[in-house]
Amino acid sequence: MSALFRARRGEEVKSAAVILCPADRPVTTEIACCVKPLRARIPHGCGSVANLLGTSWLAALAVSAVAQCLAGSRTLSQLAELPETHQLLRQTCRDFADRELIPVASKLDREHAFPAQQIRELGAMGVMAIEVPEELGGAGMDYLAYSVAMEEISRGCASTGVVVSVNNSLYIGPVLKFGTEEQQRKWITPFTTGEKVGCFALSEPGNGSDAGAASTTARQEGDEWVLNGTKAWITNSWDASATVVFATTDRKLKHKGISAFLVPMPHPGLSLGKKEDKLGIRASSTANIILEECRVPLDSMLGPRGAGFKIAMQTLDSGRIGIAAQALGIAQASLDCAADYAHKRTAFGAPIGKLQAVQFKLADMGVALESARLLTWKAALLRDSKKPFTKEAAMAKLAASEAATFCSHQAIQILGGMGYVTDMPAERHYRDARITEIYEGTSEIQRLVIAGQILKEYQP
Q1: Which has the closest alpha carbon to 177: 136, 235, 232, 123?
Q2: What domain of life is recorded for the organism (predicted)?
């Protein structure tokens, strides 16, 4: 757990929790926890429930830790209430967003300015590498924690949210899962502090959704790989210090001939196209990465040769949870803006929140938001439990992105003319929401993924 959470937990004591498992084998574990009386029942690894015995003074944090230790997986009961660690993380990120992001989000958007200071502060908090083990410089938490943090950060500033998402999910994620220990030390640790961010170079000018049709090539010459091609729509590109590049090492094998490479930035043979002038998330940079005889050492290959497509698809599964959380943040910010305005704005002698037409919009926004949040948390919990989550990640991304678009649209309708001007954040939320239905797999791709998984489940 990162220093942030150790520092904020307050008075701690050492307590021994004795749990009798169904096989009558006592298990004792020592946990540092806040002083708080608790008597609880927790799940055991076999799926049954054991009693927490005695009068130990344990916080809910401790019970959560014991349960996770014994069961080795998460339960969907956490969809009802987050563990204390995650509640603390959520509140910390919420406070940060209120204090450091919301006051400057419109300025960053207007000036297309990378939020460098905010990213460094998030790095110091452990948020730029939430899932990375502490020995590599990360927070050592899980994907549910990442989802919770991403939502709160994106509520404050969606541009900052996507910078955090790309660094965690798309850059660090594949290196953590497929990299060697040496690669992890070299390519992850410097990117945990917020001083550096990474990016993910998969899409190309001629293929976005069709990731298996990569035209970028990698040929081996002696002890080097030589990369040639153009990657398109690369988030963080102008501000990144490294990228994961996907290139074909054998065209005859089609998608099975794609490999992944770690490339520093800047680097000889690598250049950037123009910074795109976008509709939304304008404080994050987007540009093409152009590779012209770009030479990297042989040990720059990430994972086995020909495993690039697998790495990309598994990375995108996880990344979709991050984008779902970003979309939740946008949707929540839209609801916050609309509900607050509905209290303050009066018409016909009363706050407009008294009008049924406005109430129905707020109700629909709340349902869309909460439904998408539960889907997102479920996908994160399945991933943390090392269970298949491809379908759930696609569902979460689809539901959350469409909820963000819907909620931001409804917010402008509730605000009326005030929603259309930059004096209020509603118009920025509306612009930021649109991209969530496009990147890391369009809504159409999500529906294809979901349908494919459903058909597979029903296959005779």
Answers
A1: 136
A2: Eukaryota
Range of the domain at 252: 198-309
- Least-confidence region, from 9-23, 225-239, 330-344, 361-375: 9-23
Q: Where are the strands (E) in 301-405, listed by range?
A: 301-302, 346-347, 350-351
**Which CATH number belongs to the domain containing residue 96 in this structure?**
1.10.540.10
Task: Residue 249: name the closest of 240, 257, 237, 241 by CA.
Answer: 257
pLDDT tens digit sequence for 148-193: 999 999 999 999 999 999 999 999 999 999 999 999 999 999 999 9
- pLDDT single digits (tens) 425-439: 999 999 999 999 999
Catalytic status, residue 440: yes
List the catalytic residue out of 100, 402, 427, 440: 440
Same domain, 341 and 440: yes
Residue 308 predicted with pLDDT over 90: yes
Token pair, residue 350, equals 């009363």
- Max alpha carbon distance in the chain (Å)? 80
Examine the domain organization and report whether 165 and 216 are in the same domain: no
DSSP 8-state symbol, 132: S
Measured CA to CA in angstroms, residue 346 lies from 182, 353, 354, 415 at distances of 62, 8, 9, 11
- Give the global pTM: 0.84
